Amino acid sequence: MEEVKRILRENIKDANCGIFFTRNIVGDYMTTLYSNGDIQIDICRGWAYFEVFGLSEEQEDEIYEYYESLLKEESEKEDD
Prior knowledge:
Elements lengths: L1 H10 L7 E2 L10 E6 L2 E6 L4 E5 L3 H23 L1
Parallel strand pairs: 1-4
Antiparallel strand pairs: 2-3, 3-4
């Protein structure tokens, strides 16, 4: 989970419009940032969102909360 969080933190500025745990069905261009075993993290820079696969529901909840905290941090930086 720490590796997933690190990757999200390092790329949050390019994906600040959402995080999803299912594949998009419209064919947005995705780049894979991380793939190890069952876990994969893709980013759509064109629409600024992440897709994360291979997590349990508990892990998804944890990552969603972490993502939201990253957005809040970025927003606070912009306000300074």
